[in-house]
Amino acid sequence: MIRHRRAFCAGTAWSGVTALGLGIAPDAHAQFRPAHSHLVTVTPTRNDDPVTFQSDKVDYDDPAGRVTWTGNVQVWQGQRVMRADMMTYDRNTGVLAARGHVAMVQPDGTVVFSSYAEVTGNMRDGIMTKVSTLMAEDARMAANGMRRTGGKINDMSRAVYTACPVCEKDPSRPPFWQFRAWNATQDTEHGRIDFQDAWLEFFGVPVIYMPFFSMPDPSQKRKSGFLIPGITPHDRYMGTYFTIPYYWVIDDSSDLTAQLLIPTKTGPQIGVQYRKEFNFGTLRFRGAVADDRNKNNAYTNVLGQNVGHSSDHGIQGYGFLDWSMTLTKSWRAGASIKLASSADYMRDYRISGYGNDTLNSRVFLEGFGTGAYSRVETQMYQGLNRGVIHDSELPFALPYYQYSFLGQPDAWGGRFGLDTHDFYVYRPDGATDQRGELALHWDRPFRNSLGQKFLLQLRVDSMLYHAKNLNEQPNYYGHQGSAVQGQVQPTIGIKMNWPFLRSFAKGHGSQIFEPIAQIIYSPNTGNSANSLLPNEDSFSYEFTDSTLFSLNRWQGTDRLDSGLRANVGVHGSWVWNGHEVDVLVGQSYQQHIQRNMVPYSGLNHRISDVVGRIRAVPNRFFQFTARGRISPYTGKFNFGDALFSAGVSHFRINGGYVYGPTTPYYYYAEYGRNQNYRNSGPPVAYYEKTNEITGGASTYWRNWHASGFARRSLSRKEFVSLGGSVGFQNDCFGLDFMYIKQYTMIGGQSRNSSFLVTFTLKSIGSFGVK
Question: 6-34 as b/e, with b when 16 or more CB fall inside 10 Å?
């Protein structure tokens, strides 16, 4: 009992804790649990936490005031654990010395290994020799010696750091990369590691020298500080420019990144990115302010119009806000606001989104229910193609409302549905109109004893409009005053599928042969323009295999297919031993020719173009899909596209082709703007063919990957874009080279080539040069 009491006194003298909080088991065998390498949440170790020792053997030297533990020794206090082959505690100096396979587990999960250690003050101060540290993300540090102060600062001499795995066969072999520094300081309180007089080495060869380098501790997922700066040697509009970003952790749920951009050809820019997480939603904001000194020259656009000089320079800026919030289990709200002072500014400073036609902004409220969906939103747009898209002609939706309901099967086996799309559209320069809509539909599937599957569809569309300035875009009617118009159109359709199925090849395959026929009737409305009906949602008409059996082939409901028509088609499918062939061919017949049709719609005659689709997967190395539409009168293709992909496990190629006799983008660009256009039809640019081919290839082998692509316009005899990339990536390092060239003309300027070099060091970050 006396020896145990002396050991008890020695433990309390070293730890400074009360007698009730300390327990010693002289002959107990320890169970040591290694720390996890990922970030963990811990309770800070306090000075009054109890201290516990375990070992195979304990010896006491009372005259010298020394206690020695040997054999699988462990001592822990709170979240700190230390083990060694032998430990000696000197009561006179308060020093605990550990020898042989010393390992110390820190509260953040870090494990420090050493050959010899002396610690005092609850293991918060001390020295170590031949130190090796296992950190989060499998990062490692090693040093000849380390001094620990206050459990917060670790000063290391002759330090090396890497996140690459160590060679198991030859641990002395240099890792893929490492930082080698004369001195290093690890601040565990603030989560940073500073290196002085450091070299970045690859395979033990010094490559980059840095007098000083600071990085977050790998255990820190988010840490305030400067991020890796960027440099772009040459840019068409900014010249050579540098970026200096700073990351600020505001709290556990929000952060902010500020960036200073310094170009040589124009003025500087200051940008910020703010992120916030709520229990019920998220908030994102990105914006910047710059002194744009670029002045843009006049040019002639694709419509042959002269576009004057742009005055969009000086103090410029942009702001993008994205916000979403869950209100209840059934309702949520959100906003996406995108505003910029000018499209030229977005181009000059490479703001994400430039190259699109417009910046789209909206604020919405939506709800979900069993079979029901409701949404109300406001919309606004800002044009990004100077000289072609004018902001004064873009619409504002104030507001737009949508509701859809689909009921459960009723007593007759059908399902009732209801849809409405209502809006108020305002244009500073153009038509302004309001629409109220109600669409009711009832669908009833059934089949007979012959295996024929039928679908009966009943639908009533009703719309009421109030409009003014119909003589302006986008309608260009002759009526200049206000108008109140409406339409009610019932539609009935019945569709029959008659599939014939057979199995072959001893059950290893199947074949489906399926004739399809459909009859649709609705009153013939002819040309909706004669009724002064506005058109806001039916500018595009697509007659392909995907819309062959649709009741209405317009994208919206301002324009409706009408009259008596029949659609027929044949569908075939063959599947065997992993092979697949699927084919659909069809055609439409109509009693009345629709006057709302755009040129080359495929429905400008009583007998439509023939539409078809084929998908072939002959084996796992190749697949092919193609669609098309051919005129039965001229035998010419009016539309076609195709995609294919082929390759083996480490190499693959793909390609595509698209053809159309027109460029649909320009149909409404100038059509009807004046009397000459209304009489002559769309502008010349509309009749330029869309005829493009794309191709690409990609490969990867072990840690290497490469890819390339090209897109070429056959009608214009020039490339649209091309590029490629090649890179290397392993467990701790990545290097990528990327090249992209775009030939698209936007706002009178052609985009040029972009080169991007990016290398990544695990646990540190990525650095790129563009």
Answer: ebeebbbbbbebeeeebebebeeebeeee
